[in-house]
Amino acid sequence: TRHGYEDVFLANFASMTPENEMKMEALQPRRGEFDFKTADAMVAWAVANGKQVHGHTLVFKSQNPGWLTEATGLDKVTGKGAPYDRDELLAIMRDHVTRVMQHFAGSVRRWDVVNEALRPDGSYMPSVWHDTIGPEYVVEAYRAARAAVPDATLCYNEIGAEVPGPLADATYELVAKLKAEGLIDCVGFQMHVNGATPPARDAVQENLERFAGLGVELHVSEMDVDVSALDPAARFDGQARIFGEVAAACHAVAACTRFTTWGVTDAATWLGPDAQPLPFDASLAPKPAWAAIQRGLSL
Ligand code: XIL
């Protein structure tokens, strides 16, 4: 039940990340008109229960409102057909970042400013922002965020950059550039893992150590482990091992300060019922992964 889900969250977690309720389509459904109702209720509940809230996410290629991206027949290459030109889109982006951060300034201290700006090969991910503004949309988003709430903690969040490779390299370069301008404080590694192809613990730790050299905090920001391809008899032990290794890699690196799973229970996950990717089962009982995470983090 929803009540049970809330109890498990409150008893076991220190920080809440809204999964969809702070994305642009949710917060600015019509241009210039903000709808904070659902997000406000979640934040109020978390704060009343002594929990932190991690803001996710201000600028993203996905889950944008139709008014921003439709119209249009947007040509991904030339930007022709885009409803807004470069200057107008920059103004929209800055306004969104500013209004949302200032609205939540009292209670949400930490934000994913830009989410998933890069592709697996390390090049920029196409998006309405990138294709119209150019790759400098990223630094412009962080400048707006820093100006909006100067003492907020600003993160960059990426998918698939958790082990060394072209995407980790490009993420490192991007974060280094932002850090040189004093615009970034943390990097989130999402850690959506397929149990059949888990990342090696040593590779995760080596990657975290490299990023720690930039002087930013590091987060495992959205971990889940899809076990649908694993032998049913051994899948939860295999999952526990993977969660435990990533938790241990984070624990071994002093800069790694947050470990968040993308959901709580297998009853409510973006991956669907077959994935069983979370540390609590559909009846809200802890799975082997839960103890493994605690051991990995030395809790
Ligand atoms: C996902 C949500 O969990 C789903 O409910 C939604 O349909 C799509 O987005 N990386 C991210 C998250 O940064 O915002 C995504 O969340 C999962 C992948």
Radius of gyration: 19 Å
Beta-strand residue fraction:
15-25%
Bin the helical content: 40-55%
What is the N-to-C succession of helices and strands?
HEHHEHHEHHEHEEHEHEH
Bound molecules: (3S,4R)-3-hydroxy-2-oxopiperidin-4-yl beta-D-xylopyranoside
Flag low-confidence runs. none
Shape: globular
Average pLDDT score: 95
Count of helix runs: 11
Termini separation: 27 Å
Q: Based on helices, strands and strand pairing, what is the structural class?
A: alpha/beta
Largest sheet: 8 strands, parallel
Number of strands: 8
Walk me through what this model shows.
This protein has helices at residues 2-12, 24-27, 37-48, 66-69, 86-103, 128-133, 137-148, 166-180, 201-212, 235-252, 288-296; strands at 15-16, 52-59, 110-115, 153-158, 186-189, 192-194, 217-226, 256-261. By secondary structure, it is an alpha/beta fold. Strands 1, 2, 3, 4, 5, 6, 7 and 8 form an eight-stranded parallel sheet that branches. The radius of gyration is 19 Å and the shape is globular. It starts with a helix and ends with a helix. The mean pLDDT is 95. Bound molecules: (3S,4R)-3-hydroxy-2-oxopiperidin-4-yl beta-D-xylopyranoside. The site of (3S,4R)-3-hydroxy-2-oxopiperidin-4-yl beta-D-xylopyranoside (XIL) has 8 residues, from loops. (3S,4R)-3-hydroxy-2-oxopiperidin-4-yl beta-D-xylopyranoside (XIL) binds at residues 19-20, 115, 157, 159, 190, 222, 270.
